[in-house]
């Protein structure tokens, strides 16, 4: 019997970059047959966020990988036929429903904190469960109101109760309606075969570490643990049994682990040219993004306007497997406005024009207006390149 060659354990920095791009769905032919649901299963988590400029982040994630998939199609893929649920992973994320059992460790941890965030009067929790059982899926407003009359964080009793039930796993967020969570009982929303907390913490963590390693392709302890917001010691406890293999990456100062399947063949194929949500899992961990791409990115939405460098919702430009710049976009009627464009090199002009025009078409804009470019000498070439594509 011929033994298979051992997978490479020493990777160049370029190898690691390409492996990461392929693992995240940006190198090679897009899996259009599996579509949005395939993207979700492949990534294991799609982060949600309140900010909507071109579109919300959970819409931008499949767009960046598949191209101009319809926005209604994206929502339907997530929220119909019990394919997904919302829970706390890297942050608030859409997760494949088959991963419900593997978050049992987190549900148990939340249940061990009886005074999570807010005091709750006796009977309020049971009342929310009773109302959902009687009336079916409801928003917090329909349950009795999301807020009291105080500051924005002053949740109502029903909102506190239903969010606590969500954390505990008795209630599930089954969709977002006008950005409001729609809650239902887990016993109705989760398939019977998945509705259990039978797995031990170690089994859950082992699975999530393996999933994160597969989604990243290659990563350090911090990279892989951060994917589902695990603690370093949780990673340490299970990585040896996770199926990931130790590797070294030239230029990386810390040990790394890789998905063995990612090492079986050299990553080749067509590179995506696209704008990325700042909450895309390719770049959501800043230290990793700097290490792999030599690109420093920070979401400036919460930075005071006078202190912003690249803009409110600057979206990095991915082209040729590199991050070549960013744009802070806006929409004015049927015009996509590039309020501020930052280009790292003149070679970024053409791909930025392509990405702007494609994004404009996707969100239903008929024109693109470039307002400011950080390198003034590239303003005219960028405008000309955009006009050629409109």
Give the topology:
Blueprint (H helix, E strand, L loop, with lengths): L9 E2 L1 H11 L11 H9 L2 E2 L9 H10 L4 H9 L4 E5 L3 E5 L7 H8 L12 H12 L2 E2 L17 H12 L2 E7 L2 E6 H4 L11 H16 L1 E3 H7 L4 H7 L6 E5 L6 E3 L15 E2 L10 H8 L21 E5 L2 E11 L2 E9 L5 H14 L4 E4 L8 H11 L1
Parallel strand pairs: 1-9, 14-15
Antiparallel strand pairs: 2-4, 3-4, 5-7, 6-7, 8-10, 9-10, 11-12, 12-13, 13-14
Helix pairs in contact: 2-3, 2-4, 6-7, 9-10, 9-11, 10-11, 13-14
Using brief descriptors, characterize the structure shown.
390 residues, alpha+beta, four-stranded mixed β-sheet, 15 strands, 35% helix
The tally of helices reads: 14
How would you describe the oligomerization state of the chains in this entry? single chain
Ends distance: 59 Å
Give the structural class: alpha+beta
Principal-axes shape call = globular
Portion in beta strands: 15-25%
Give start-end ranges of low-pLDDT stretches: 1-7
Q: Order of strands across the biggest sheet?
A: 11-12-13-14-15
Tell me the series of helices and strands, N- to C-terminal.
Answer: EHHEHHEEHHEHEEHHEHHEEEHEEEHEH
Mean pLDDT: 92
Major β-sheet, in short? 5 strands, mixed
State the total count of DSSP E strands. Answer: 15
Radius of gyration: 22 Å
Overall helicity: 25-40%
Task: Please explain how this structure is put together.
It is a single chain. The protein has 390 residues and is of the alpha+beta class. The protein has helices spanning 13-23, 35-43, 57-66, 71-79, 104-111, 124-135, 157-168, 186-189, 201-216, 221-227, 232-238, 286-293, 349-362, 379-389; strands spanning 10-11, 46-47, 84-88, 92-96, 138-139, 171-177, 180-185, 218-220, 245-249, 256-258, 274-275, 315-319, 322-332, 335-343, 367-370. Helix 2 packs across helix 4 (71-79), helix 6 (124-135) packs across helix 7 (157-168) and helix 10 packs across helix 11. The termini are far apart. The relative contact order is 0.13.
């Amino acid at each position: 019997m011929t033994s298979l060659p051992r997978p490479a354990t020493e990777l160049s920095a370029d190898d690691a970059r390409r492996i990461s791009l392929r693992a995240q769905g940006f190198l090679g032919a897009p899996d259009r047959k599996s579509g949005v649901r395939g993207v979700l299963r492949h990534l294991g988590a799609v982060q949600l966020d309140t900010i909507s400029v071109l579109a919300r982040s959970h819409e931008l994630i499949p767009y960046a990988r598949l191209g101009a998939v319809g926005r209604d199609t994206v929502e339907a893929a997530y929220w119909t036929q019990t394919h997904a649920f919302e829970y706390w992973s890297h942050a608030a994320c859409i997760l494949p429903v088959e991963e419900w059992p593997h978050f049992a460790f987190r549900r148990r941890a939340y249940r061990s904190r009886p005074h999570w965030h807010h005091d709750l009067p006796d009977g309020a929790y049971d009342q929310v469960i009773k109302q959902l059982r009687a009336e079916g899926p409801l928003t917090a407003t329909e349950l009795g109101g999301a807020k009291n009359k105080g500051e924005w964080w002053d949740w109502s009793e029903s909102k506190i109760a239903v969010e606590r039930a969500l954390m505990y796993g008795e209630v599930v967020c089954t969709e977002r309606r006008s950005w409001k969570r729609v809650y239902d009982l887990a016993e109705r929303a989760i398939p019977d075969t998945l509705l259990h907390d039978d797995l031990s913490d170690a089994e859950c963590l082992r699975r999530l570490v393996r999933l994160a390693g597969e989604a990243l392709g290659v990563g350090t302890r911090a990279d892989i643990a951060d994917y589902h917001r695990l603690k370093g010691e949780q990673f340490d406890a299970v990585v040896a049994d996770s199926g990931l293999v130790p590797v070294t990456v030239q230029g990386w100062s810390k040990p790394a682990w890789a998905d063995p399947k990612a090492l079986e063949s050299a990553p080749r194929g067509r590179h995506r040219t696209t704008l990325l949500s700042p909450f895309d899992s390719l770049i959501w961990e800043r230290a990793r993004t700097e290490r792999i791409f030599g690109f420093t990115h920070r979401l400036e939405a919460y930075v005071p306007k006078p202190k912003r460098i690249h803009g409110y919702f600057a979206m990095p430009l991915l082209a040729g497997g590199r991050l070549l710049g960013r744009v802070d976009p806006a929409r004015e009627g049927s015009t996509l406005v590039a309020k501020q464009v930052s280009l790292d090199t003149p070679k970024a002009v053409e791909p930025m024009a392509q990405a702007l025009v494609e994004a404009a078409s996707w969100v239903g804009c008929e024109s693109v207006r470039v307002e400011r470019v950080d390198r003034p000498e590239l303003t005219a070439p960028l405008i000309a390149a955009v006009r050629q594509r409109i």
